[in-house]
Automatic annotation (TrEMBL), chain A:
It holds the Pfam family ABC_tran. This is ABC transporter ATP-binding protein. InterPro entries: AAA+_ATPase, ABC_transporter-like_ATP-bd, ABC_transporter-like_CS, ABC_transporter_ATP-binding, P-loop_NTPase. The keyword Nucleotide-binding applies. Keywords: ATP-binding, Nucleotide-binding, Transport. It comes from the Bacteria. GO terms for molecular function: ATP binding. Residues 4-227 form the ABC transporter domain. The keyword Amino-acid biosynthesis does not apply. SMART domains: AAA. It comes from Companilactobacillus baiquanensis.
Automatic annotation (TrEMBL), chain B:
It comes from Companilactobacillus baiquanensis. It is a multi-pass membrane protein. Belongs to the ABC-2 integral membrane protein family. Residues 17-282 form the ABC transmembrane type-2 domain. The keyword Membrane applies. Its main location: membrane. This is Transport permease protein.
Amino acid sequence: MKILQTKNLVKKFGNKIAVDNISLTIDQGEMIALLGPNGAGKSTTINMLIGMIQPTSGQIIFGEETTDIRAYRSKIGVVFQSSVLDSNLTVADNIMLRVKMYFKHINVQSLINKFELSSIWKQKYGSLSGGQKRRVDIARALISDPKLLFLDEPSTGLDIQTRTKIWEILDGLRKETGLTIIFTTHYLEESQNADFIYIIDQGKLIADDTVLELQKKYTKNILKVVYKTGKTQKMELDNKNEAIQILTDKKSAISDFEYRPGTMDDVFMNLTGRKIR
Amino acid sequence: MSGLIYRNLKIYFSDKSGIFFSLMGAMISFVLYLIFLSQNMISNWSNVPDTKLLLDPWLIGGTMTITAITTTLSSLSLMVQDRERHVLADISLTDIGFLGIQFSYLITAMIVGIIMQLVMYFIMGIYFMIVDKSSMDLQIFPQILGIVILSSFIWTIFNLLLLSFAKKVDTLGKIATIVGTASGFFAGVYMPIGVLPATVQKIMKYTPALYDTAMYRDVLMQSQLRQSFKNLPNSVENKFKEVMGINVKWNHQILTIQQDILTIVVFAIVIAVLIILISKISRRVIISKV
């Protein structure tokens, strides 16, 4: 079932085209990654999807047909890139006052348990560590029990334990409640969590596919061989048979080797180039 | 809406240094008065008996106006900060509509203005009660409360108009400094209006500050005025009231407290119309992230 669709979305700031003709189709329950270098138009796209800015042209369709963000607003949860919570207030205040801003009845206890908030419940938000803050951020975005969760670079600046933990929770939520998640990230290995990936560069959609297909299409497998002489050699191969062939041929000269499929990093570099912009 | 109002109030009252600086204008007037202003004025009016008891409520009246101006501004500033931090964008995802969000900030500022004015009123009242043995008349408290609410209201919307032009937190500090300094003059506290040049007096009559102060002074000083001037000719009392800014004079007419209130209401209407005109532009700005 489609939950969100965009048709030929365009956003111009003056003469600059930030988002150029992007069409996405997102199904219920999917985890979607938006990738792209800095300034590619990811945040602009997300901001249009959550109704913060109006597209210059094109259409955003929520659910099956409505194009009215106001009708759909309460079904959306957003975790912004920079936190919007109040550092002078406690976690309890940040969460409970937010609850009061919705008309419907909300059960907070399950969120508290899921995100392990009870130990930091009475602490000021500003005194929390980066990972604790992120947990509160995400819990708060889920207060209205949204169908669609947007996360703009949710794991930037977090250690690997926290990142893993956050992805575990998100993945669990998705399986449990059918939550659809759309996120942008700089850690390309995190996009491996996604069901589907959109890669954006200079406002344009340059690739969209599953992780496996992207790796197949845009990377080759890499064989790195270390010889007994100390020399190393790196080869890009199409399939494992080639690798086995090479390894058997040079068996006696080889001291060690590494064989791996192309990663998302390779996909990304091949698609967007190596230049810093 | 109550959730947002409660949040805004908590943020204001949890920021101790913010409260301190929003009362700065009021404290300056209080301290200046204690150090030398009162001495100056007492010697100027030596023919009037119990000048000190007259001047204490006179100062309270002006300082209350300054408090209303600066604390409502400080509370409303949160809206600009929230806009810059994208908090407004985030709140707009909740069930509170655009107007609800706007009103929440306004109501918060009004509540802050009312609480802080009452706090200042009791601090100053009790101080003078101890130091100068002036009495604190609780019978006029309902009237005081009425003026507190009215002045909190007028300054909240006045400051909303001012902040319609502030898009950045950086601008806020500058506005706060200007307003904090100017309010003491416009309210006629740092110097009595009568000693200022005619042009300045004219300018002062175009802001609500003078009328706000006049209302306060009218109520606060009433009994002491009667007391002090009972053996003096009427002309001396009128002269005193005019020079000290207890009544505002338009051409030859001295305004009554009812006319002061009416003037403030007219100010409120004019400002509200301006805000509505400007909000056509600022509506987009408030929600927009870019």
